[in-house]
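Before surveying the methods themselves, we first show a specimen of the format, giving the amino acid sequence and backbone structure tokens:

:::
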Amino acid sequence: MPRYAFALQFLGKDFAGSQCQITQRTVQGELEKAGQIFFKEEFKTCLASRLDSGVHAKELTGHVDLEYAPSPAELAKANICRHLNGILAADLAVLDFKLVDPSFHARRDAISRSYLYKLRGIGPRYPLENGQVAHLPYSLDLERLQCLAAELIGRHDFSGLSQLSTDKYTTPLCRVLACHWVQTGDGLLAFTIKADHYLYKMVRTIIGTQVAIVSGRLAESFQREALAQKDRAKAGFVVPACGLRLESVEYTFPLFV
């Protein structure tokens, strides 16, 4: 059966996460309904990452197997995307859609995933940023945040910097390939992290811990102790989902060109 890869972009505000849920609106649920309408067959997808309620995505990849065998003209990316996007609501769009090798697996073949978190510290709030930027009313020092981010580079057990999960098959050992803070031209603080995989609410717990340390709510050593002791009590709060978005899913090859 032919396999197709796709890339999605969405605003997470009105979704109860990415994975299908019976009673709530989700990214996967909306996509599968639209795909079944257009392709006129079951449209059962596999997404590369599982995102929490309220989290956004610049590019979330996935795959689907279909009996559908389109002509080259029908398979043209713009044509497929245009038809699917005509069915989907405005907060979810298909950016790419292509035929791939049947052995490709969007989740298992991914080697890393990158996230971006945007926040504004103490000062005025800007209503136009609502839903995509978190407002945390603390005085935050960029240099200290950078030092804390640098501590996470490498392979660590992140049990103490995540939330309890029922997933018994995911190792708590995560390799962080990049982790840093920058201040943007519009005064926002932006946190970027790239890792081979993540634990439940790991990114938002890391940010909350670093913010709590820099703002004086936690001792300077608490992040290191949370890692070394695998102690969630040493970690800070979980920051709001609205500031977080999945930037990209990386593979050993260019999936979309």
Summary: The chain has a mean pLDDT of 93. Strands lie at 3-10, 45-47, 56-65, 92-100, 112-120, 134-135, 154-157, 173-183, 189-195, 244-250. The first helix runs from residue 27 to 39. The two ends are 23 Å apart (CA to CA).
